[in-house]
Amino acid sequence: EQQSRIWAVVVLLGLLSVVMLARLIGLAVQHKKTVSMDRDVEQLLQRLKNVTEQRDSVNSQQCCPSGWDKFGMKCYRISNVLGSWNKSREFCFSQGADLVVVDSKEKMDFISRYDSYFWFGATDVAGEGMWRWVDGTVLSLDNPSWSTGGPQGGEGKNCLLRAYELNQFKWTDESCDTITLGLCEQNVIK
């Protein structure tokens, strides 16, 4: 009986040793995987840095035509021809551009550098109160750039104009036949 107890303790200690050895091996493998993952993450971060540098290099090589201002991947210019919304859009087309579409706060901040009235590329001619940019995207009526809380004009005022209100430029709906300038936007030249 004494011998069977000793034998049971030996077997139990042997099993415990095998379990501990397996756990140590598991920890070693896990550590190796962690080190390998850290190395992989480091390589991916280096690749991202290289791609970002290449992108920035390509962007800096792209430019705008003379007389145009670059912002991001677009070029901007106030037309030098007074005209209606359609006439301003035709001028932009003749320059390989279109009237500007405002799709970010950053772009709106950039546009604020222009100190004049001008046409934007938005209209509700297709459906009263359904404002759309010339690229087809919807223009929100609750955008804070609108003067007096949104468009006010009704059927006679269907084009988006930048106007001066309370010491700042705001958007207003205006008759598309109003004579003013347009702000043109085009992609940068590669």
Automatic annotation (TrEMBL):
Broad class of where this protein is predominantly found: membrane
Subcellular location: Cell membrane
Annotated C-type lectin domain residues: 71-185
Gene Ontology cellular component terms for the protein in this record: plasma membrane
Protein name: C-type lectin domain-containing protein
Record keywords, A-Z: Membrane, Transmembrane, Transmembrane helix
Pfam family, one: Lectin_C
Transmembrane segments annotated in the record for this chain: 6-29
Gene3D superfamilies in UniProt: Mannose-Binding Protein A, subunit A
Signal peptide positions (record): none
PANTHER family, sorted: C-TYPE LECTIN DOMAIN-CONTAINING PROTEIN 180 (PTHR45710), RH26557P (PTHR45710:SF26)
Membrane topology according to the record: Single-pass type II membrane protein
